[in-house]
Design a protein that fits this description.
This protein is mostly helical. Helices cover 59% and strands 5% of the residues. A 3-stranded antiparallel sheet has the order 1-2-3. Strand 5 and strand 6 form a beta hairpin. The longest helix has 45 residues. The relative contact order is 0.10.
Length: 419
């Protein structure tokens, strides 16, 4: 066996220089014996099977998390569009002041199920699931590619601090501005790539869910919806509303990272405090930039041949800035931002009367006065406002009816339909 010794030594050296990859996935303890072709083929098959299992588990996790929150995502879309089919009821603020509140998101989901059955809660699930899956995978792949490029082409020395949100793995390791710029660049590029590839699925999901209002069936399946949008609007239709949507997402990401870096540099670098600050800053920045997200959703649905986004209910917007100005004029830039305590602002009813195509008149100011009077009386009596009078008072003049189906703007900044 003396003639085999040089081959064993050579194999050991090669093993040390080139770590085992998926074509050499055999045990390190047996590396003294050169594996034959059958052993390597079996190892490759095992590695491929392991990869398939890991991808299947990951896909199952994404499907489970998406399915868990999908009914709430559907209700959120309708809230963003201003569709309020349930009358507000009397409640009180945290300070005890009487107010009108619209149904929260759980009540909204219950209404959708009662009207159209459980199937209404799963509209657009395929598009939503594919969008989440494609976005997450693209984000991870892009992040690793950018990270490898920076390691090989840009960075001159090993990193001592991992991230702005992670404490350094070496004592007295300083998180430099260059490290911050590198991490922020990787995050922005990875998030941009993920959102870019996933956005067409988001457009399909929004349009499919929007059909709930009038029980339309313009978009039926995932592939058919893609083909229909592409044939009618081209590639621009699949990316309608993309710019304001990216402003909300990437803008929030950049602002959170800048705020976290300032917090870590000035206040403290403790990991617990950094985690708390990250969630608080993320909530605040997303709230500040929420109007751009709402405009992006409105513009994604606006080109669709759906009644919900057609005159006289809503005007057609040539540019997303027009939509932003329209929502600002209606005091509706934060519409749908709160999904639990949805307080109706009575003071803006007079402004809401100026919606194009609604044919509104002084009835909205009369409605504001009647609501204020009802609130005052209800606060003294301590009772719940009746539903029917509020419904009747919430309908402004100047709506339209077609084939027995009526839709009118309500004074809550949205509209109702009656079938």
């Amino acid at each position: 066996m003396a003639h085999d010794q040089p081959a064993v030594i050579l194999h050991e050296l090669l093993h040390e220089v080139n770590p085992p990859n998926r074509t050499h996935a055999y045990d390190r303890a047996t590396s003294a014996t050169i594996p034959d072709a059958k052993d390597e083929e079996a190892a490759v098959r095992a590695a491929r099977f392991d990869m398939v299992v890991r991808w299947a588990i990951y896909g199952g996790q994404v499907a489970a998390s998406t399915a868990l929150f999908h009914p709430f995502a559907c209700a959120r879309v309708l809230m963003d569009l201003g569709y309020e089919p349930v009358a507000p009821t009397l409640s009180r603020t945290l300070f005890g002041k009487p107010c009108l509140v619209l149904p929260n998101i759980t009540s909204y989901v219950r209404f959708m199920r009662n009207r159209d059955g459980r199937g209404a809660l799963w509209r657009g699930f395929g598009a939503n699931f594919c969008g989440v899956l494609v976005g997450n995978l693209t984000n991870d792949i892009a992040y690793h590619l950018v990270d490898e490029f920076i390691k090989r082409k840009v960075r001159s020395s090993p990193r001592k601090a991992w991230s702005v949100f992670v404490v350094a793995h070496q004592e007295n390791a300083r998180y430099s501005p260059a490290d911050f710029a590198e991490d922020l660049t990787k995050e922005v590029l990875a998030r941009t790539a993920g959102l870019t590839l996933a956005y067409p699925f988001q457009v399909v999901f929004l349009r499919v869910v929007s059909q709930f209002v009038w029980k339309e069936r313009v978009y039926t399946g995932l592939s058919d919806s893609f083909l229909q949008i592409y044939r009618q609007e081209g590639i621009r239709g699949l990316y309608s509303g993309f710019v304001p949507f990216m402003v909300s997402e990437i803008g929030a990401l950049v602002l959170v990272w800048i705020a976290a870096y300032a917090f870590r540099s000035v206040v403290t670098g403790d990991r617990i405090w950094l985690t708390i600050f990250r969630f608080a800053a993320d909530y605040m920045m997303r709230t500040v930039l929420y109007p751009f997200k709402l405009v992006g959703r409105m513009m994604a649905i606006s080109p669709a041949p759906l009644k919900i986004v057609s005159p006289p209910l809503l005007p057609k917007f040539a540019h997303w800035r027009d939509c932003f100005a329209y929502l600002k004029m209606q005091n509706s830039l934060m519409r749908g931002s709160n999904i639990f305590m949805r307080i109706v602002n009575v003071d803006k009813f007079a402004t809401a009367s100026g919606k194009p195509g609604s044919g509104a008149d002084s009835s909205s100011s009369t409605f504001a006065e009647s609501v204020a009077s009802s609130l005052e009386k209800a606060s003294r009596v301590g009772r719940r406002l009746p539903s029917e009078p509020v419904i009747a008072a919430s309908i402004r003049a100047g709506g339209f009816s077609e084939h027995g189906k009526g839709a009118r703007f309500s004074a809550f900044g949205g509209f109702r339909t009656s079938f």
